[in-house]
Structures are given as structure tokens and as C-alpha cells.
Fold this protein.
Amino acid sequence: MISDNTSTLISTFYLGETIWGLDTLDAQEVIRVTEITKVHNAENYIIGIINLRGKIVTVIDLSDKLGLGQSVIGKASRIVIVEWNDEHIGLLIDAISDVIDIDKKNLTSAPAAMHGTRGGYIDSVYQADQKLIAILNIRSVLEVSEERRD
């Protein structure tokens, strides 16, 4: 979730052809895709787990979680590591882009058409150079994951 300052850094990434953003304070690191161990009886969007320097990380297909279809892992695919409730979670993305400094005054609410399945995961929208960046509400994405695991 975007902090209350007037400016914030956003890490941008691609899911398919769509560019998304995530507050850099939410991202611990970005890693290349490594061997992922499948987890039986997990939600469809949970790809499996990885060992990251001795820590077990659950990997979520972010595209699938957002209702955009399953990702195909390629050379540009990356895993964004976030921390949630003292647990490390990996978000599989199609490609990493840039870190941009945005003025929060230029953020707008997500359009009403986006308030469906994916809309609940969008914090706001930012217009940058003829393209719209959907700013992900990582807490919303991961809270649903937590509820389903109980």
C-alpha cells in the first residue's frame, strides 16, 4: 500500500503486456526463477515453494492470482520476494521493469470497471508516458491467500 508521503518509489513489472507497480517498500528483493517444488492440495495460483538462502518461500503465480491466466515461465520471468506476517512470499511475474519515483498527487482511483476480481487488488492507477500503471495492493492479494489457507 502506498505510504502517506507526497512522493514514493514504485517497482514496475509486467504480467503479460500489462504493466503493474508495487511500492518498493513492499518488495524485499527480485530473484531469477529457480527450481520450484510443487505443493500438493494447494490453491491453483500457488506454484510451490523454493529455498532462498535457508528460508522457505511460497511462490504465487501473480497473474493467476489476479485472474489473468497462468504465467508461462520464460527467460525474463522473475520472483519478487515480499514479507507477509513474518513469512516470505514469492510473486512470479513475467518481467521486471523500472523503479520510478511518482508524485502521489498523480495517482487516481481504479476505474469502476476494475472493481471486479482484479479490482480489489488494485490500490490506484498512475499515468506515465502514454501508459497506465496499475498499482498493486499487496496486502489485499496476500490477505486473501491467508484466509484460504486457514
About this structure: Residues 131 and 140 are 24 Å apart (CA to CA). The longest strand covers residues 7-15.
